[in-house]
Amino acid sequence: MNDDRHGGGPFNEWDLREPREQSDLPSEPYDRWVSPDGVCMAEFHRRGEGFLLRFPDQADIALDPNGQGDGFRGTGWPIPGCPSRVVRNLLTNAVLPVLGNHAGGLFLHGSAVSIHDGTGRSVGAAAFLGLSRGGKTTLAGALAKQGHPFLTEDVIDLRRRDGTYWLQPKTSKLRLFADSARHLLGTGPELSDNDEKQDVEGGSTLPFASEPVPLKRIYVLGTDHAAPLEIASFPPPAALVALLPHAFILDVEDKPRLRAHFSRMADLIDSVECHALDYPRDYAELPRVTEAILASFRAD
Amino acid sequence: MQLSDTFAVSQDVVDRELGGEVVLLDLSSGLYFGLGSVGARVWEMLSQKPRTLRELADDLEREFDAPIERIEADLLELAQALRERELIIESPG
The whole model's pTM is what? Predict the structure, then answer.
């Protein structure tokens, strides 16, 4: 059996159209992504045999079957004034992961770094799963700054080979809020003081890992941003329950695919240790947090 | 709910044993439910075929060192919780 599971390939036709306003849609969404503070980040609508993903105040993206297995043809309509990088980020960090899982892959919402030993050799990847604005990217950046290159800042793409889950490198950029970028990089880069994440290119200060790395540990970030630092091992059943909300699902009503996805997630839990990570979201505490993560990672 | 009631697992539930416990996912609601070791054994028996709670209690008494009264009480509580979440359904038997 070939158990090399991956996604991203099904999305092989893409058409970016002229900007248009987001008019009311004829259908009610069958699913929504809602941020912790109650803001709708995406709506999922049916569109014939396909789907329409509405990202409010950003873009509509239609996914129509292209007649090739699980493949889809994508069509995007940004709203007027929406920067092209926003559409690119939606494709990379939302659309491709949902299509990847739909096609039998394993994509989770999170950041990851390649942990290096004292000689600069990778000893495995640590993944950080969490809700939006939960500190995933800052944590990856803080570890990268200490010599543990980042693999991804928002999408964990896992491919299983010979019982090992290989975490795929994504883009060599970290998208950081200005305060996080300044903390990690000092006064170097030109940053806007707005409420949007900005691209910070990896480099000598924040190294990027360009090759896949075996996943060794998963850390699920707690939602209490004032919690004291604590890392606790999840028993496997609790780990599965903790991980399920961090997956990208295109069709929550497609029971055969949900069943298969649940099984893939459980297989992952069977192979990779999972920990709950609580810590105060305070830049002054980051060194202590990264030190605890590294100690936890190296412990058997 | 009575010990003579027969139950079957819902077809909309997917389960997975992990570390001696079982995680259930209701595909209709997206809700999860965890079962400890005894609950996992009950789920395993119900997954094989519909059974009355009395049959389940008798089997559990043979497997676990506990008084039948306590087994029955715990089983009724578990079955109630599972039925409320539509993870098991009443079966004609």
Answer: 0.87
